[in-house]
């Protein structure tokens, strides 16, 4: 986590108010409620996995079997089963 000086970031009156409670120490300020991203949204992994799982379901629907999909997508037999039989179709 990158260190940022409060003097450079906060208005003077807010800084003085915070100094009533904390002086010379680091304080973590969390993101506001609802602004937190879900796993993989920032990196794009969530989109990649959703696309891959859609392709697996499509190929399964077109007649590919679990073993073929397991080899094609380099996933375990059980992982492919979870994807094709999940309710996220």
Automatic annotation (TrEMBL):
State the source organism's domain of life. Answer: Bacteria
InterPro entries linked: c-mor_Regulatory_Protein, Homeodomain-like_sf, YraL-like
Checking NCBIfam families in the record gives: CD3324_fam
Q: What is this protein called?
A: Mor transcription activator domain-containing protein
Provenance organism: Paenibacillus macquariensis
